Structures are given as structure tokens and as C-alpha cells.
Amino acid sequence: MAGVVRKFFFASMFMWITPIVILYGFNHHMFPGSSQLSSSSLTLLSGFLAVISVNLVIAFYIIMAMKEPSDKEHRPDPTFVADAKASISQSAAEKRDDPAEAHDKEE
């Protein structure tokens, strides 16, 4: 479980850091050729690349999640199942014993 939380933390961190680094790098002309672009082209290109970077991080996280081992068979909690069955049987018994409902059926 700790590995899953760690992967989620790193994916979330990269989803925030990567687009900020891209936008900062383009706005401060750290990438080659970015100083030759017009202001509107620079904004469009940096925004587009920032959005693409977030989508790539999400895709990478999904691929990592799909590679997680699923050898464990998921079973519900036995106490939850027992409580649910008791609740259902109690609800069914109350419906059978309800005199108002029997009166409605006769009419």
C-alpha cells in the first residue's frame, strides 16, 4: 500500500512541477529558440506544452497503475456482509409486519 501512495504522491508532484517549469522556462527564455518567438506564439507554445506534459504524466501514472500486481482476490469484509444481510432481513420483516401497508393493499 505504501508503494501505491508513493507513486500517487510523485505523480501528483510532477503534475504540478512539470507545467510550471515549462512555463517558467519559456517566459525566461531558457529554452533554445524561445527568444525568437513573438509574445503570443510564446504563450501559445508554452501553454500547449504544459498541458501536454500534464497529460503525459497522467498517462504514465495510469500505465504504472495497470502494471500493479493483482494476484490478490478482493473479498468484502465479512462483518460488513453479515451486517448488510441482517439489515436486509430486518427490513423485509418490518415490511411484512407493517399494518399500514396491509391496509393500503386492501384498498
> Structurally, how many domains make up the residues?
2
| Element order: H for helix, E for strand | HHHH
Largest sheet: none
Spatial extent as radius of gyration: 28 Å
Number of DSSP E strands:
0
Descriptive keywords:
mainly alpha; 2 domains; elongated
Write the layout of secondary structure elements.
Elements: H1 2-27, H2 39-66, H3 78-97, H4 99-106
How would you characterize this protein structure?
This protein is mainly alpha-helical and 107 residues long. The chain is elongated, with a radius of gyration of 28 Å. The chain has four helices and no strands. The model has no long low-confidence stretch (mean pLDDT 84). Helix 1 runs antiparallel to helix 2. The longest helix has 28 residues. It folds into two domains: 65 residues, no CATH class; 33 residues.
Compact description:
The protein has 107 residues and is an all-alpha fold. The chain contains four helices and no strands. The radius of gyration is 28 Å and the shape is elongated.
